[in-house]
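WARN no homologs supplied; continuing
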Amino acid sequence: MAIKNKTNVSEYCLGMDVGGTHISAAFIHKYDSSILNDRIYNLKINAKDSASTILVGWSDFIASLIREIPVESLCSIG
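OK structure emitted
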């Protein structure tokens, strides 16, 4: 994913909404609250899976998102 139209690339936060049936996430510019490339990521969760399976799914999803942008451009996850 290319970071477009931003001069300081160290100002993105990974915002996440973790629910019982899905996770939504986006890279948010911490000063103007814009969503990087207007892209929102989603992962469906089967609430009937084991806790271990759900946690591995969350972990894999978060790891894949972190690989989407250069590590130096990520300031926080929340």
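The first strand starts at residue 12 and ends at 18.
OK
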